[in-house]
Amino acid sequence: MMKRLLVAAAACAAMFAACACGAEKSAKPNFIIVLADDLGYGDLGCYGHPSIRTPNLDRMAREGIRFTDFYSAAEVCTPSRAALMTGRYPIRSGMCNDRFRVLRRESTGHLPDSEITLAQLLKTQGYATACIGKWHLGNWMNNPDGHPMKHGFDYYFGLPHSNDMNPVAGLAKGQHDSLDPDPKAFNAPLFEGEKLIEQPADQTTLTRRYTEHAVKFINEHKDGPFFLYLAQTFPHTPLFASDAFRNKSPRGRYGDVVEEIDWSVGQILDALRAAGIDKNTFVFFTSDNGPWLIRGLAGGSAGLLRDGKGSTYEGGMREPGIAWMPGKVPAGIVCHEIASTMDLLPTFATWAGAKIPADRPMDGLDITPLLTNSGTVQRDAYIYYRGTQLYAARLGKWKAHFITQPSYGPGKPEPHDPPLLFDLNADPSETTDVAAQHADVIAEISAAVQRHRATVQPVMNQLEAVVSTETGSGSKAAQPH
Ligand code: MG
Predict the structure, then answer these.
(1) What is the reported pTM?
(2) Active-site residue list
(3) How far apart are CA 408 and CA 328, in angstroms?
């Protein structure tokens, strides 16, 4: 009896191996990135939030890898998204700026055509591609070349920029920070493809509608391969949630909004399971930058990290990062290695069999060893830019701040020589400067910064140009959105 069982088990194993092998040969993996907007490091249950309920993301973390040291490549929206799309620091594409920080409603610049996006790279391998949600890498109402379908996406549904960028005069005052904002106060335009389908967009149903379009795309392309970039509009303020979530969270409206995003992730993972493609689809969840702290209760929390959106302290750029692909990404792992949104492009390219562009500096690394929990990745210093200025660098557990600046308000850049030095393992909140005890570490980080600087070429800045009929307000526009 035992022998028969063993033979049967062996046959089963051989069959499974053959199936798995066959599947690998015939099907490239699908990729999904879910990018929250302005979600803080401390805003999810699995990152320690005590009252925001995120059972789907918590489960995703239990079934996959949760990163503790995952970074966006900028502290505000536009440069962060440019880096994610290109695998390169935004200084290389001109998608960062000291005056405006992000693309504005009246901007005409966009992600340059010379940049190779993740979507374009995957298209070379036969992927269907969709961008659903906030783009913020070009406003096609001013310049059609800024549209995501000009940068590698087959399908688009969403807002060209942040949900606060079309405030209605006389109505929007005080609504930005409100815990129950007036839906009529923001005249956000909603597009499907290149067609304006709704203005003002009903923002209370945006998360739900993004999710429905995402699930539809998954089901329509379940034979694969596909790449879905779902860039949620929230929890960027103003905060809107659907009836099913409004006034439900103990954390108030901010919690409502995050809990609806969590629901959305659950719907997507359920759709993958129902379509039988969960084991062949890599899903990554993160945020574009830290919490917008000046929004009070309408903004999120960076947990024990210092500062938030707009800052090169950890709270501005260290994000939740959760990887999921049952069978390939091992379950229940907490990864303490440094990783970033820029790593997704070279990693996806490798998995898809695409060539990583070799004609330009690539800042992201293939993090397959981290995602399979099979090793580490050799990484030089991780660089923190604020606009076009290099503010800080991290090498291993050490972080040196060469310049600091309050994230908001009239505070000026403050240079540091020697730089401030923090041990991020011993002092994740960056409270205690230990530069005086570690001149050797500072020398090492400074050398790494010089290596990085040597690779940076001047490029045209994409965030300065605006439509000629509008002048904008310098002081207002200087606040990141
Ligand atoms: Mg943002």
Answers:
(1) 0.93
(2) 77, 136
(3) 42
